Amino acid sequence: MVAQSLELPSDAFDQYFEPNQQNRAKIVKYPAVDEFDSSKGNQGVGPHKDLSGLLTLLYQANDLPGLQVQNHSGEWIDATPISGTLVVNIAVGLETLTSGLMPATTHRVLNPPPGMGPRYSIPFFLSVRLDKPFEVLDLPKKFDSLKSKVVISDSDGQFKEFFLNKLNLSVLYARIRSHPDVGYKYYPKLAKEIGIDENTRI
Fold first, then answer.
1. How far is CA 98 from the centre of its chain?
2. DSSP state of 90
3. In the chain, what are the domains?
4. Is 36 exposed, middle or buried (0-12, 13-18, 19+ CB in 10 A)?
5. What's this model's pTM, rounded to 2 decimal places?
6. CA dist., res. 12 & res. 99, Å (int)
7. 124-174 pLDDT, tens per residue?
8. For the packed helices 158-165 and 167-178, what is the interaxial angle rounded to 10 degrees?
9. How far are the Cα atoms of 88, 114, 123, 167 from residue 79, in angstroms, in the given order?
10. Most buried residue, 4, 75, 81, 167, by most Cβ within 10 Å?
């Protein structure tokens, strides 16, 4: 459907996949703020974009708040759970392949308020093949005028270069950015390269 919306052949994205490639899914528990020692840091996820794939499909398994997305004005908007639906995040890979026409979604996760119990979610990350560099898609010229209306992404430059040519680093940087305290503890040099230090918090 994404390919067809861009007036490309329906199999345009097949080149980025291979049998038995590394897609990922996980079950995530976010404890309420009264269920952990907040002096040791937050248990949510800091502002980030999904870096290593094309799309993320997220099932919010209960009705607790926490997931927020950032709009073009920089405001945080609650992605309130809706029964029977999935949240679809555009990842940096798709932003890169479409030259910014489809900007990646900046999002974060806050812990539920006290007394509400834990929040559960199940993300599925639609990844790409790891065995060859990528090139951006050749999109119809009619879409060029839309790109000027897209807010410039902070994924430009370094992260897009990694996605196209060093996807393994893109995956690692994604983990460090999402969990800056742990990332800085174990990968301080790499964390500093993307602006994360010992004072960075979720």
1. 16
2. E
3. 1-150 (2.60.120.330), 166-201 (no CATH)
4. middle
5. 0.78
6. 15
7. 999 888 777 778 899 999 988 887 555 544 545 666 777 777 777 777 887
8. 140
9. 11, 19, 14, 29
10. 167
CA 202, 72, 100, 7 torsion-angle sign: positive
Query: What is the C-alpha separation between 192 and 18, in angstroms, rounded?
Result: 33
Alpha-carbon distance of 93 to 98, in angstroms, equals 9
Query: What is the distance between the alpha carbons of residues 195 and 92, in angstroms, rounded to a whole number?
Result: 18
d(CA 77, CA 71): 7
Segment 17-71, tens digit of pLDDT: 887 677 889 999 999 888 776 655 566 788 888 876 899 999 999 999 999 999 8
Helix (H) or strand (E) holding 108: strand 107-109
CA 80 to chain centroid: 18
- Give the C-alpha separation, 117 to 35, whole Å: 8
